[in-house]
Amino acid sequence: MDTAALQSSWQIVAKSGDDVPLFFYSHLFLSHPELRELFPISMAAQRDKLVGALGAVVSSVDRIEEVVPLIQQLGREHRRFSVVAEHYGAVGASLLATLKHFLGPAWTPELAADWSAAYGLVARTMVEAAEAAADTPAWWSADVTAIERRTLDVAVLRLQPQERYDYRPGQSFAMEVPQRPRQWRYFSPANAPRRDGSIELHVQLVDGGQVSTSIVRSTKVGDTVRLGAPIGTALTLPDDVATDLLMVAGGTGLAPLRAVLEQVDRRWQVTGEVPRVHLFHGVRMPWSLYERELLSQLAHRPWFDYTEVVSDDSSYPGARGPVGTVAARGGSWQGRTALVCGSPAMVEHTVAKLAEAGISRTHIRFESFGAAGDVNQSQQQASRQGDGQ
After folding, report:
1. Is the same domain home to 157 and 251?
2. Where is the Globin domain (predicted)?
3. CATH code at position 215
4. What is the CATH number of the domain that holds 69?
5. What whole-number distance in Å separates Cα of residue 147 and Cα of residue 155?
6. pLDDT band for position 65 (50/70/90)?
7. How confident is the model at residue 346, as a pLDDT?
8. According to the model, what pLDDT value does residue 378 have?
9. Does position 325 have pLDDT exceeding 90, yes or no?
10. Does the residue 270 lie in any domain?
11. C-beta of residue 198 within 8 angstroms of C-beta of residue 143
């Protein structure tokens, strides 16, 4: 299999932009109209996510050992869309037809065979992972038990899963709300697991965001939502974490870090010994500091420091500027593990600034679901805007 040819051909196809998903979905739905119901009614948010992720994953088959966990995760996650093994053949045929259309004469028998083999390997790995997970739910139902409009654009939801739902502080899950069927979006619990099983979510209204707008403005107590399986390990920590921590959050990217703080605080209350933690929370305007009261109270703990950062209000008397810049110059962080969460732009900027400040990139942790987030029609960062970047 010529992996270099796979990658170069995908780069050529990708240059055609929006025409690629338009052709792909047209081919898929015309040849298999029964698959249309698996996708959202509005495809505006879907766009190139599926075909783009497929192209990226399949053309990276030369790194199969590295991406197998991701591919397996995709297979397990796709169960919530009611995807079955037979569907993979239809998707693969449309992918190959799309490649042939945009590559023209460059679509040789040899290249076609390589793409077919690579897609077959990926599809088989996804199907096997899905079948191996058949004894676990494809999704969990949870009832909305409380809603609090914390700021102009942030709502705090409390969910009560109808069945036991296990996750680790710092993880995320995809959620579907009844107002937006088949439009799954990623959110992070803002609390460590509780005895009563309840989960708190922080949701920020995003301009043009169909799901976030629906959640903030239309979700009601008594609604039932669906939760996908918890994923992600970059922001999770062992219960006995010993390394001092630097946390940098943008907007509602605070949520998973707040869950980790709760984990650390529980340990402190039991043992009296935990690592030091300094949290920088960045927002655009001061009224978006929606967890100020709780975090200010937590700052009375001997192990916790809290710095608020505002980027767009020149009259703000505290720290101002991009939260990553402020955090990087806020102290000596050598030896600390940094946890970063926010929009993609905020994360990229913060990681660069922390590295410039002397923190090894191997000690800077942030979640990046890559193709997983694309294929699952979900953008975790959609709930993490207003990040002070």
Report:
1. no
2. 1-131
3. 2.40.30.10
4. 1.10.490.10
5. 7
6. low
7. 95
8. 31
9. yes
10. yes
11. no
Q: How confident is the model at residue 78 (pLDDT cuts 50, 70, 90)?
A: low
Look at the block and give the residue holding tokens 């076609």. 112
Residue 239 forms part of a structural domain? no
Contact predicate 332/311, CB 8 Å: no
- Whether residue 251 is predicted with pLDDT greater than 80 in this model: the reply is yes
CA dist 241 and 274 (Å) reads 8
Question: Do 253 and 376 lie in a common domain?
Answer: yes
Residues 207, 258, single domain; the answer is no
Q: Quick one: tokens of 305? A: 């420091």
Other beta carbons less than 10 A from residue 314's beta carbon: 6
Q: Which residue has the tokens 């037809």?
A: 97
C-alpha–C-alpha distance, residues 369 and 29, integer Å: 27
Collect all residues with Cβ–Cβ distance below 8 Å to 162 and sequence separation of at least 6: 140, 141, 142, 143, 224
37, 148: one domain: no
Strands of the 185-187 sheet, one edge to the other? 185-187, 173-176, 224-227, 140-149, 154-161, 199-204
Output the average pLDDT for the chain. Answer: 84
Band of the pLDDT at 381, cuts 50, 70, 90?
very low
Long-range contacts made by residues 24-28, C-beta under 8 angstroms, separation at least 24?
A: 24/50, 24/51, 24/94, 24/95, 24/98, 25/51, 25/94, 27/94, 27/97, 27/98, 28/90, 28/91, 28/94
Instruction: Classify residue 228 by burial, with Cβ atoms within 10 Å: 0-12, 13-18, 19+.
Output: buried
pTM: 0.72
Are residue 250 and residue 211 in the same domain, yes or no?
no
Range of the domain at 330: 245-385
**Residues comprising the chain, all counted:** 389
